[in-house]
């Protein structure tokens, strides 16, 4: 209908509006009016091409013409034979050509067609329109496309522009292995509200829309493509684009076998030129039978800016790999509001893979769920990013499952990335039961060479090991790049590893880089499971610079009840540190077996440390330690330290230490700590609340042991309070206002010089006379400190003699500023002049 009043089409044409054609009552000798129409469309096209009219109106009927060559004008169908009304469905104008080529061929500068039906027959290369000009095709209905032969329903040459709107193709069939195209273009294509259905039984490759020129734009909005059951393992492409593309409101559904690609964007001739924008797309892939096929939702390579928003991908299951999004060598990436789900895989896959992006990667609101991998030698990854600048990931979830085998995967894998920011990111990589060797499972693996910031979210690698060989599990593994390292910030996250050999909640390996800016790990919950060999809550290795570890909870999630013996398990282990403050953490060593070593906080190497206001638990095993310390210089202040449950099997020798300091080169000050235990089951062991080895330099500053509660537990063995390992003299220790209680009365304190100090007089006077204690020593008591419920609650009772019994406290010892010493273990203000003894300020 003509739209003379711009109301959307409401006026029937008259004789002066164009040329009229009717196959049933027309004649080419007629003038082409309503009452005397032409009979063939080519005759009308000739008149329009010659400029005698601009429009062609075609009555209902079947037109068998082909290779029509309009150069200008417009053609409208769906009219009754008297042109008194138009209804494209009730009175269709149908093109039913038997030609082996296009119905409209070599279409020229500008041509519009609308309101017609097209039947495309079998055989040959079938096209509805082939154009090098500008074609606007709308309201077309294609009820069937023949069963054999290559199909390019709409073919656009390099100089052409095709606009499709409200086009419906109900059935495209092929049984000969031919390649099928909805649109084949080297020019510009604009599509609105169009449906293309490739019916069951297709044998060859299928392309919904294919654009083969990197200089031309593909603009799609409202495209739906369906591909039915396949009889061979050929490929499907919903959209194939080699140039810039804007794709909105796109739906692709595939039913069965073959390698399926939702959007395939690949720039070869002009890398970096073609941007890709995808908004509101849905991909639903069937469960194909082919072996080794890959389902890909969006593939983008060598382009410019890639923006993907509002995309749902359901990759099904079956004997395939699920690659939801693959992006490589582009300028920048923006993914948001993406939901991707895949069933079990034949091969491991990087569900979302982003490589070589120098202009920034932004991922926001992306959810990826990846099923188990059935192949024995494959890895699974939720999000995999390699070599990228300015990576930002927010409010997203990534899940990758690994079936029992020898290799592993990660929910999140970021390698060689600079300036990484993660906020509220949740990742899980899991193995239900590990039955093979050398599996490595990461909730997240991150290898940055610039700044790394994590705020919130969760990083989980659960699983259960069934063998005793190397199934390493890491909730979060951060490893430095081979170059400069920026700042580190990991805050407010849940980090968890499952049950397996080498189970580690959070592993930070800085690879001896000396250029690390200040780092902070704060307010995280870090958990490790039960492992047959080594377990770590937080493992720090080879880091330079200053690191603050504050307000974290580090704890085990399971008890070890069987397995191999003789290995060590750690709440925190810090190797090769430089300068670290541990402040306000709750640190619980793992639940070891009866033959394992367990440590709450293990510091085996030199460095400068402040360990302040932490709650430290030595765990459960054969040999336990609350705090194990070597250092250059350290201040240990305001902590509650429980030596753990040691010698837990009555037939196996075992012992425990609340504090063990072994290095004679360590200057350590112990201020206002409550040290309790250990509790030991084995009856004939030798245990210490504190085992320290003071460093002495003639004329130097002594090691301070001030305002501590030193409380070994009486177990029937040798349960000793404070052991000074070494024989120095000249006041190596300043022993002030400590409370000793429990354990053996003959071992309140003794040293390697043979001195035993078991009464208050010996602690306060004899120790000074022997030279082990300096002149400032004194005020030590042997009295029950009246703790609330040790070892579970080491606070002071309201009438504890420790209240107000301490010596005045410095805020700097040996030049080390003590963070938060003005507060007690609960954050309450501490009286620095007359403080309570121990970690609690009542």
List keywords for this structure.
single chain; 842 residues; mainly beta; 60-stranded mixed beta sheet; two-stranded parallel sheet; 2 helices; 2% helix
Explain how this protein is built:
By secondary structure, the chain is mainly β. The protein has a domain at 13-59 and 72-92. The protein is 2% helix and 51% strand. The chain contains 2 helices and 66 strands. The protein has a 60-stranded mixed beta sheet that branches. The protein has a two-stranded parallel ribbon with strand order 49-53. A hairpin with a 3-residue loop joins β63 and β64. 57% of the residues are buried.
- Summed up, the helix count is 2
Which class do the helix and strand fractions yield? Answer: mainly beta
Quick check: average pLDDT?
A: 85
Strand count, sense and closure of the main sheet? Answer: 60 strands, mixed
Residue stretches low in confidence (pLDDT < 50, at least 5 long) are: none
Gap between N and C termini: 90 Å
Strands, count = 66
- Report helical residue fraction: under 10%
**What is Rg?**
39 Å
Quote the beta fraction. Answer: over 45%
């Amino acid at each position: 209908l003509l739209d003379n009043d711009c109301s959307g089409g409401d006026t029937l044409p008259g004789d002066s509006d164009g040329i009229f054609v009717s196959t049933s009552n027309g004649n080419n000798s007629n003038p082409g009016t309503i009452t005397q129409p032409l009979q063939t469309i080519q005759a009308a096209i000739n008149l329009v091409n010659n400029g005698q009219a601009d429009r062609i109106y075609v009555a209902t009927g079947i037109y068998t013409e082909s290779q029509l060559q309009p150069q200008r004008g417009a053609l409208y169908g769906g009219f009754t034979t008297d042109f008194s009304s138009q209804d494209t469905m009730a009175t269709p104008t149908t093109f039913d050509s038997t030609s082996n080529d296009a119905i409209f061929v070599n279409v020229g500068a500008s041509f519009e067609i609308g309101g017609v039906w097209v039947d495309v027959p079998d055989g040959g290369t079938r096209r509805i329109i082939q154009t090098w000009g500008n074609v606007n095709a709308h309201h077309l209905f294609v009820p069937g496309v023949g069963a054999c032969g290559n199909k390019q329903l709409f073919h656009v040459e390099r100089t052409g522009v095709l606009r499709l709107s409200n086009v419906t193709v109900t059935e495209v069939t092929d049984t000969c292995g031919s390649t099928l195209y909805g649109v084949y273009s080297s020019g510009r294509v604009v599509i609105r509200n169009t449906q293309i259905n490739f019916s069951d039984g297709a044998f060859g490759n299928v392309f919904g829309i294919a654009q083969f020129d990197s200089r031309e734009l593909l603009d799609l909005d409202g495209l739906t493509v369906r591909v039915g059951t396949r009889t061979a393992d050929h490929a499907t492409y919903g959209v194939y684009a080699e140039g810039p593309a804007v794709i909105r409101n796109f739906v692709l559904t595939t039913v069965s076998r073959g390698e399926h690609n939702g959007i395939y964007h690949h720039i070869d001739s002009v890398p970096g030129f073609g941007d890709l924008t995808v908004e509101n797309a849905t991909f639903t892939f069937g469960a194909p039978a082919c072996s080794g096929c890959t389902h890909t939702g969006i593939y983008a390579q060598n382009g410019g800016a890639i923006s993907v928003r509002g995309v749902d991908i359901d990759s099904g299951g079956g004997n395939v790999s699920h690659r939801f999004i693959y992006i490589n060598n582009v300028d920048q990436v923006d993914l948001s509001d993406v939901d991707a789900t895949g069933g079990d895989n034949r091969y491991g896959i990087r569900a979302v893979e982003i490589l070589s992006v120098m202009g920034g990667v932004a991922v926001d609101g992306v959810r990826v769920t990846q099923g188990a991998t059935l192949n024995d030698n494959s890895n699974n990854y939720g999000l995999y990013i390699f070599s990228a600048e300015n990576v930002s990931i927010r409010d997203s979830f990534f899940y990758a499952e690994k079936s029992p085998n020898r290799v592993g995967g990660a929910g999140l894998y970021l390698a060689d990335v600079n300036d990484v920011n993660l906020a509220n990111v949740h990742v899980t990589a899991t193995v239900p039961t590990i039955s093979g060797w050398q599996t490595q499972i990461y909730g997240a693996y991150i290898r940055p060479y610039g700044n790394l910031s994590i705020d919130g979210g969760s990083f989980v690698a659960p699983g259960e090991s069934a063998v005793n060989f190397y199934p390493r599990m890491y909730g979060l593994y951060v490893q430095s790049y081979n170059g400069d390292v920026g700042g580190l910030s990991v805050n407010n996250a849940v980090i968890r590893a499952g049950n397996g050999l080498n189970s580690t909640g959070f592993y930070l390996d800085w690879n001896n880089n000396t250029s690390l800016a200040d780092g902070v790990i704060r307010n995280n919950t870090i958990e490790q499971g039960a492992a047959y060999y080594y377990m770590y809550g937080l493992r720090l290795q080879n880091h330079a610079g200053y690191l603050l570890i504050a307000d974290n909870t580090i704890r085990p999630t399971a008890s070890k009840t069987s397995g191999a013996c003789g290995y060590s398990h750690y709440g925190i282990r810090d190797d090769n540190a430089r300068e670290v403050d541990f402040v306000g953490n709750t640190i619980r060593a793992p639940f070891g077996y009866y033959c394992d070593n367990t440590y709450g906080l293990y510091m085996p190497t030199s460095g400068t440390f402040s360990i302040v206001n932490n709650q430290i638990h030595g765990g459960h095993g054969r040999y336990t330690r609350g705090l194990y310390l070597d250092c250059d210089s350290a201040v240990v202040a305001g902590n509650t330290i429980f030596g753990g449950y040691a010698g837990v099997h009555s037939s196996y020798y075992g012992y425990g230490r609340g504090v063990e300091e072994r290095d004679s080169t360590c200057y350590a000050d112990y201020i206002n700590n409550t040290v309790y235990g250990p509790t030991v089951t084995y009856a004939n062991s030798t245990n210490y609340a504190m085992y320290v080895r003071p460093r002495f330099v003639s004329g130097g500053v002594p090691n301070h042991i001030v305002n501590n509660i030193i409380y070994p537990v009486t177990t029937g063995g040798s349960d000793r309070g404070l052991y000074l390992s070494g024989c120095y003299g000249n006041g190596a220790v300043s022993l002030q206002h400590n409370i000793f209680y429990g354990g053996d009365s003959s071992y309140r304190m003794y040293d390697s010089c043979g001195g035993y100090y078991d009464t208050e007089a010996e602690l306060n006077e004899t120790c000074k006379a022997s030279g082990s204690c300096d002149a400032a020593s004194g005020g030590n008591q042997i009295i029950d400190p009246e703790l609330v419920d040790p070892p579970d609650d080491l606070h002071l009772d309201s009438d504890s003699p420790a209240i107000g019994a301490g010596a005045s406290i410095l805020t700097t010892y040996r030049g080390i500023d003590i963070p938060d010493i003005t507060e007690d273990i609960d954050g309450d203000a501490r009286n620095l002049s007359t403080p309570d003894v121990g970690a609690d300020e009542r």
